[in-house]
Each structure stands twice: as C-alpha cells, then as structure tokens.
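debug: dumping io for the single-chain case to check the tokenizer round-trip. Nothing else runs in this session.
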Amino acid sequence: MSKLNNDILFLILEELSGDIKSLRSCLLVNKTWCEISVSILWRNPSGYFKRGSLNLIISHLSNETKEYLKSEGILSSVILRKKPLFNYVGFIRYLDLTQLEQLLELLLRNVKENKVSNIINEILELFINGNTRVTHLRIPSHFNRQIHLISGADHYFSGLKFLFCSTDDTNQNILEGLSKISKSIRKMELYVLTNNYTGIIKLIEAQKNLNQVWFCCQNQSIRESLEDSLRSRTEIVRHVKLFFN
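debug: decoded output
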C-alpha cells in the first residue's frame, strides 16, 4: 500500500476528508502518506483550528516578528527555532477570517495595538499570495482589512466558489474589490447589516456562475434592491432564500 501511485492514494485518502481522526493516523504511515494527509487536513482547518494550528502558521512569519512575539512571551523558543515541515498555509482552500480574527485577538490580547495590526497584516499576506487559490471565504462584520489590495489577491481570490459575509459599512469596499477579481462564485450567504450595499450589488452583478443566494435582511428597501439585482441574473441564479428579521 505504501507504494501506491500518489494520485490514487490521494483519491483514497480524500474519502477520509471528514474523518480527522483517521487522517491523523495516516500521518504516521510514511512520508508520502503524511504529505498527502497534511494537504487534505489543511485544506479546511476551521473545524479543528486551535492554538497549535495557529503556532504552525506563526512559524512561517518573519524572524523579526517571531522574535518580537517571543519577547512578549507569546511564542516559545521551541517554536521560534522550529522550521515548519510543510507550507501549511499553501494547502488552505477554506479561509475563515472570522475564526482567524478571533484566535489572533485572543493570542495577541496583551500586544500593543499598532503591533497587532502589523502582525495580522503579515499573516494575511502569508495566506494571500500569487501561488495558491482559495475556494471558500468567510468575512465577519466590522472586518476592514483591505484583503483585495494585498499583492497576489488577483490570483488568490480568482477561483472563489463560496462566500459568506456579514456585510456592514466597513466591508463594502472589500466586496466591491472582490467583484473585480472573483467572477465565478456559485453560492453566497449574506447577512445584510447596513444601509450601504453597493459592494453587494456589484459583487452579485459580476458573477458568471452564481447559482444559489441566501440573504438575511431587515430593511425592506434593501431587500427590494437586492431582489432586483438577482432578477437580472435569473438565467444563472436558480435558488434564492430570503430571511427577514
């Protein structure tokens, strides 16, 4: 079994993508099994993304940043010296900015605010690069980091298939920016928390393969505007769910 063709082995192990415990056992078989299992586990790490996983991401940061985190008692000397075995960030296809932001806020709670911003930006630049593409993206409300302007964003978000966003005034620029990059989104889930929805409209109208839209909105006039935008895409949008609070 250890000498199976890598492509066949990948297809076999991919059947375990929902079984984290079994995939972790596969890490111990040999180098090939380990490499393939890691790539599957890290494709969508949100289900088990904890401090240990965050440490692996931090291990990819610049030496200057790691030294600073060590001086603040956040990063141990072991992690500082340890080189990552894999490019873990490069395997990620599901980017959950909600969860990432929460973990970073907890980890960096005692760090100066200006330093926190710099560290988070450096971590985002690790994710968003010209070498990989993300397929699933979750954006929280009040998220104002202009991820669409990071170098490599044009490539990174070009293959986006699913978007979840709690939309407010702070992230409309992001959605508008994504409308120029991500044109093949198939499914959107939107919580509309603002009267400013220009970014949402532009993102919907830019799509070529949009099939499902789910949105929750309190404001009737906004709902009507979004419905009008969706009606203009009836040739591709097949499923729409509206929730009113």
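debug: round-trip ok. The longest strand covers residues 162-167.
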